[in-house]
Design a protein that fits this description.
Elements: H1 8-16, E1 21-23, H2 25-33, E2 39-44, H3 53-67, E3 71-76, H4 80-83, H5 98-104, H6 108-112, E4 121-125, H7 127-130, H8 135-142, H9 147-151, H10 154-161, H11 168-184, E5 188-192, H12 196-208, E6 215-219, H13 244-252, H14 259-266, H15 271-282, H16 287-302, H17 305-320, E7 330-331, E8 337-338, H18 339-345, H19 352-360, E9 364-366, E10 369-370, E11 377-378, E12 385-389, E13 393-397
Parallel strand pairs: 2-3, 2-5, 3-4, 5-6, 7-13
Antiparallel strand pairs: 1-6, 8-11, 9-10, 9-12, 12-13
Helix pairs in contact: 1-2, 11-12, 13-16, 13-17, 14-16, 16-17
């Protein structure tokens, strides 16, 4: 493969923006400045059907490399997804059935294609090579690591100290992720800080198989809409497939202290402009306008400038101007229904318990009036009754 033109500033941007650690930074910088075309790897397990903007951080890093002319390799972990990685978990992740993984990953490549150019990207499913390994080779691979290395990981140590079960299956996951790097001959692997042990295992495995050890770029994890780490299992995500209004509104719901972090990690707004926003916030400028700019940029990335502008106008109309949106989901009930049952049936609440919590917090309105008791009956009308949950949840019932 030929050489690529080098932009030293672009190289430094790749090595610093949205980056927690580079292993080994001097080696990677030297290789990038040499003009060599590197193979850049990212693997994602399809543990849920949707990619969220937390996943966009390493995907954007892949795009950065791609724009410099490097070869990116996107691995869908259809095999590792069944086994399950507990790197960021405080309890054992249950194994997923193969059918569930297959269902989840149906649109993964298309979703990743919202960020990277899939026509210039290698795409693999790691069952291609992991499904062919037998006990003999797995045993040899396992011999490259000690049990002490695995249990020294912070979350595993906490679980052991608490007497929580750690399955032998969990010890195999780093071997599989490491072997992925061998299979595709990775020069660089990107991933979250919670993946550090697994990423390092790739270096060990490549050395064992006679390859040059990959360099590593880790990215910080990002908080979701509730302030906790963004996770599909917690439902606090902003999905890449979200509709423009929903995407814009969810970005507007993040806490003000995350604005700059989101700008840096999940957009490619120039850093000079972000520094200006940061100065504005320090001098007491109302963060709402800056957050709206952030929501606009993110929505534009995954839809269009026109869709982002429309979402911004809809948000202002709904919240700044205190208006109910013109369009909302509709539900035909045909007869009086208890508010608890209605909230669940309309999917404004995932359970009756959550519905009660919303009512207790004054977060439910019927025709503009706050509902204060669980026995409230909603009477359908010909023109429809608007049910509102919080600031952004609406349904019209008939």
């Amino acid at each position: 493969m030929g050489k690529i033109n080098i932009d030293p500033k672009a190289v430094e941007d790749v090595l610093t923006r949205g980056v927690d650690e580079v292993i080994v930074v001097d080696d990677l910088r030297k290789r990038m400045l040499s003009g060599d075309v590197l193979r850049i790897k990212l693997g994602i397990d399809p543990t849920s059907p949707n990619l969220h903007i937390g996943r966009s951080i390493p995907l954007l890093k892949l795009r950065d490399f791609q724009e410099l002319g490097h070869q990116i390799v996107f691995i869908v972990g259809d095999f590792t997804g069944v086994i399950g990685d507990t790197s960021d978990k405080e309890s054992e992740r249950p194994m997923l059935v193969k059918e569930k993984v297959e269902e989840n990953m149906k649109n993964y490549v298309a979703q990743a294609g919202k960020i990277i150019d899939m026509e210039k990207c290698e795409v693999h499913y790691n069952s291609e090579w992991l499904g062919k390994l037998g006990y003999g080779e797995i045993g040899v691979q396992a011999d490259q690591f000690s049990l002490a290395e695995f249990i020294s990981r912070e979350n595993i140590r906490r679980r052991l100290d608490a007497g929580t079960r750690v399955s032998l299956r969990e010890l195999l996951y780093p071997l599989m992720q490491g072997y992925d790097s061998v299979a595709i001959k990775a020069d660089v692997e990107v991933g979250g800080t919670d993946q550090r042990f697994n990423l390092l295992s790739g270096r060990t495995m490549q050395q064992f198989y006679g390859q040059k050890s990959q360099n590593i770029i880790t990215n910080p994890l990002i908080e979701g809409t509730d302030g906790r780490k963004m996770s599909s299992s917690w439902g606090n995500t902003i999905n890449l497939t979200a509709e423009p209004d929903d995407m814009f509104g969810k970005v507007m719901s993040i806490t003000d202290d995350l604005i700059i972090k989101y700008f840096i990690f999940v957009t490619r707004v120039p850093m000079a402009k972000i520094s200006g926003y940061e100065e504005d916030l320090k001098t007491g400028v109302n963060p709402r306008g800056i957050k709206a700019d952030l929501a606009f940029e993110i929505t534009k990335m995954y839809h269009s400038e026109e869709a982002a502008q429309k979402a911004r106008e809809n948000f202002d109309k709904q919240f700044r101007d205190k208006e109910i949106p013109d369009e909302m989901p509709e539900l035909k009930i045909g007869a009086p229904i208890n508010i608890i049952d209605l909230l669940v049936q309309s999917q404004l609440a995932p359970s009756k318990g959550e519905a009660r919590r919303l009512i207790d917090g004054g977060g439910v309105k019927v025709a503009g009036q706050v509902v204060e008791n669980y026995e409230f009956l909603v009477e359908p009308t010909v023109e429809g009754v608007v049910i509102q949950k919080g600031k952004r949840g609406f349904v019209r019932v008939f």
